[in-house]
Amino acid sequence: MVDKNNFSFSDLEQWLNDRRVTEIECLVPDLTGVARGKILPREKFTEDRGMRLPEAIVAIGVTGEFPDEGPYYDVIHATDRDMHLRPDPSTVRIVPWAVDPTAQVIHDCFDRDGNMIPYAPRSVLRRICDLYAAEGWNPVVAPELEFYLVERNSDPNTPLRPPKGRSGRAETSRQAYSIDAVNEFDPLFEDIYAYCEQMELNVDTLIHEVGAGQMEINFFHDHPLGLADEVFFFKRTIRETALRHEMYATFMAKPMANEPGSAMHVHQSVVHSGSGQNIFSNPDGTPSKEFYWYIGGLQKYTPAAMALFAPYVNSYRRLARSMSAPINIQWGTDNRTVGIRSPVATPSARRIENRVIGADANPYVALAATLACGYLGMKNRIEPSPECKGDAYLSEYQLPRSLSEALGWLSDEKDLHDVLGKEFITVYSEIKEIEHDEFMKVISPWEREHLLLHV
Description:
GO terms for molecular function: ligase activity. The chain has 2 domains: 1-117 and 423-455, Glutamine synthetase, N-terminal domain (Ubiquitin-like (UB roll)), CATH 3.10.20; 130-420, Glutamine synthetase/guanido kinase, catalytic domain (Creatine Kinase, Chain A, domain 2), CATH 3.30.590. 35% of the residues lie in helices and 18% in strands.
């Protein structure tokens, strides 16, 4: 595997030459996590080494709509100006399912004066990583990403169902950690692992999660920006692979009514940039003040960050007491009922797991937000509440119950605005308001079932 962390443009050109690449997919992750951009011939990519797109392209909601007016246009120019895209050589990957030799490269977004576009997801995560670097800290993360395999379904009015495996039967019961249940989809996962190997994605273990057709993939720990890129690539890869096996892969937080939701649990720690020592542990191996302050920051700011961790109306269906998902910001050691878990680990590996984040979250935005909460906790020396040693599901809800409520909490938390960037919060919030308004125009089957003739 080639180490691309310090790739220059000349290294990139050599990499493309070695693989006889003829086309480049120039990608930009938008606020939803969708891959926007252009496909260029190799010669055009080499000549231009970048491209232009309208500023608003990274600021589109999941419905594809833009606001008609309002604060959105205090940030994004109403004349629809160009932003200038620069490839990040370290992100180059082969496109394993392409017919012709094709590479994909993630780009960063700049204005015409060379300033980073502040509301682009990658820019927001870079901003947070820079704040850590200024303190002599290096954040380290490891996501655990859950998803469902479902039967192909072209009718959005039809409920989703688990797909049929090699046996010709669909799962009808919970199969947590079942090896045989994973083996039902061996042909699919063989392709996924082959594609991940060709793309040099650092995926670790694969397990069957609790739900019917629900899987989880774990990533090795690394720098947040590189891992956000890998999650972005992985989501794209697994959706493509599932289609080739006549099924869908979905990262919806709650795709099926009677099954658990899907999360993106994020393990996080911080090391000294120079010594590489984990700052969550004292020299004698005990938890440090920074460890507790980081937890305190997550407890204080996570409720306001929920619109970033749970970005859609569907996200809040997952966060229910009976669905194995957190309902509060209690913390505890080796306790999976809490929102903030400290796994049992050696002092050098001491870390904190944020279990609130949904699988539907944009990886760049989610990692930026959880690191921002911890950063504020350490900077402001916020003490956590006492450790929860019992069942946190017996405690009260401490998180917003809907996207609308979450956006209100985010609007009121100015500390998060300061560290994540006011421009980003403005654009993100306006887009989410549009999505919520669109959802409220839809009349659900539940309303027709229970209200049509009864009220």
